[in-house]
Automatic annotation (TrEMBL):
Protein name, as recorded: tRNA (Adenosine(37)-N6)-threonylcarbamoyltransferase complex dimerization subunit type 1 TsaB
Residue span, Gcp-like domain: 32-144
Keyword Transferase: yes
InterPro entries: ATPase_NBD (IPR043129), Gcp-like_dom (IPR000905), T6A_TsaB (IPR022496)
Record-level GO cellular component terms: cytosol
GO molecular-function terms, A-Z: transferase activity
Keyword tags: Transferase
A Pfam family matched in the record: TsaD
Organism: Streptomyces paromomycinus
GO biological processes: tRNA threonylcarbamoyladenosine modification
NCBIfam families membership: T6A_YeaZ (TIGR03725)
Keyword Ion transport included in the entry's annotation: no
Length: 219
C-alpha cells in the first residue's frame, strides 16, 4: 500500500505520502486563496521527499469536506485526475474526521472549521476515531450548548472561542494530510469502505447567478 493523500477543504493545502504503516512525507501550506497554485507543486515535493514515483502510488485519499466550494473542488478534481491517470482507486474521507484523528482525544469533543458567513462546519465525536453526528453547518450561537459543554478543536472553534469555551491548546487548527492518510490506512486495513470522492458542500456556493440575469440567445 502506498497512499497519496491530499485535502484542500480548509485554508491549508496539505499533501502526504503514507506506506500503510507510517507517513513518509507531508507538507502543509496555509493560504485560502491559492489552493490551485500550491497543490501540484506540493505533490511533487512530497513524492520527492518520500523517495517514490507517482506511478508507485496504489491509492489516492482525498478530503471531501465540508468546505468552501472553490477550494474543495481543487483537491477533488486533482484526486480524480490522478486516479484516472494511474488507474488506482480514489477514496474520500470527511475532512472533519482527519482533524479529529489528528487531535488524538479519547473523550467526547467537537471539531469545528471556519465556514465563513459567520458560520462553522462541525461534528461531534466520541473519540478521535468515532464520529457521532453528521457534518453540519451552523452559526456558533445555534450550537452554543454543545460548544460550551465539550472540548473542541479546529480553526472554527478558535475563531469563536467565546462560544467554544473548551478549545484545546495545541489542538489541530487545519487539516493534516498525514492524519487523513493514517486514518484511511487504518480503515482500509480493516476492510472498511471509505466515502466516494464526492464533495460535501452542505450549502450553496457563495457565487450566485443574479436574480434578474437575462439569457441572450442567438437569432
Amino acid at each position: 500500500m502506498l497512499l497519496l493523500a491530499l485535502d484542500t477543504a480548509t485554508p491549508a493545502v496539505t499533501v502526504a505520502v503514507h506506506d500503510g504503516s507510517r507517513v513518509l512525507a507531508e507538507e502543509r501550506q496555509v493560504d485560502a486563496r491559492r489552493h490551485g497554485e500550491l497543490l501540484l507543486p506540493a505533490v511533487d515535493r512530497v513524492l520527492a521527499e518520500a523517495g517514490v514515483k507517482l506511478g508507485a502510488v496504489s491509492d489516492i485519499v482525498v478530503g471531501v469536506g465540508p468546505g468552501p466550494y472553490t477550494g474543495l473542488r481543487v483537491g477533488l478534481v486533482t484526486a480524480a485526475t490522478f486516479g484516472a491517470a494511474l488507474d488506482v482507486p480514489v477514496h474520500g474521507l470527511c475532512t472533519l474526521d482527519g482533524i479529529a484523528y489528528a487531535a488524538g482525544l479519547d473523550e467526547p469533543f467537537l471539531v469545528a472549521t471556519d465556514a465563513r458567513r459567520k458560520e462553522v462546519y462541525w461534528a461531534r465525536y466520541a473519540d478521535a476515531r468515532t464520529r457521532l453526528t453528521e457534518p453540519a453547518v451552523d452559526r456558533p450561537a445555534d450550537i452554543a450548548d454543545e460548544a460550551g459543554a465539550l472540548p473542541s478543536v479546529g480553526a472554527g472553534a478558535l475563531l469563536y472561542a467565546g462560544t467554544f469555551t473548551g478549545v484545546r491548546d495545541g489542538g489541530p487548527e487545519h487539516q493534516s494530510a498525514g492524519a487523513l492518510a493514517a486514518l484511511a490506512a487504518e480503515k482500509l486495513a480493516r476492510g472498511e469502505e471509505l466515502l466516494p470522492p464526492q464533495p460535501l458542500y452542505l450549502r450553496r456556493p457563495d457565487a450566485q447567478v443574479p436574480a434578474n440575469y437575462k439569457v441572450v440567445t442567438p437569432k
